[in-house]
Amino acid sequence: MSNISPLTKITNLKSVASWTHDVIKAYESRVINKKITANLAKKTLKKFKEYIAKPEERDDYEKLLDLCTSLSTIERSETSFEKFYLESLKEELDNLQKTLMEI
Asked: pLDDT, tens digit, for every residue of 77-101?
């Protein structure tokens, strides 16, 4: 098993984006499987929905919420679609992380 766990305390968007990136990397490295990845994302998503975004974070919050939701459904991705699914998630996450670094 891995040392990746769901986020239990969320204080900013950067930490959620970084955690999401780490989970994707762990999944791609086969450290965790689809089911574990989805369960971790679902647990973190529950906490993330409780986070109250500042007005200037609202758009980025919504984007990150969508990405976390997508990650929580990874166990439903088909093998032939999975590579595209992950690449798309990573691309959107990378773009969001660049934006968050500017804040």
From this structure: 877 788 888 999 999 999 999 999 8
Residues 6+ apart with CB under 8 A from 92: 63, 67
Q: What is the 3-state secondary structure (H, E, C) of 5-55?
A: CCCCCCCCHHHHHHHHHHHHHHHHCCCCCHHHHHHHHHHHHHHHCCCCCCH
pTM of the entire structure? 0.90
CB atoms within 10 A of CB 92: 15
Classify residue 56 by its DSSP letter.
Answer: G
Give the pLDDT mean for 4-29: 94
Task: Please tell me the distance from the alpha carbon of residue 71 to that of residue 40, in angstroms, as a whole number.
Answer: 9
Q: Minimal CA–CA distance to 19: which of 8, 37, 7, 34?
A: 7
How far is it, in rounded angstroms, from Cα 95 to Cα 86? 14
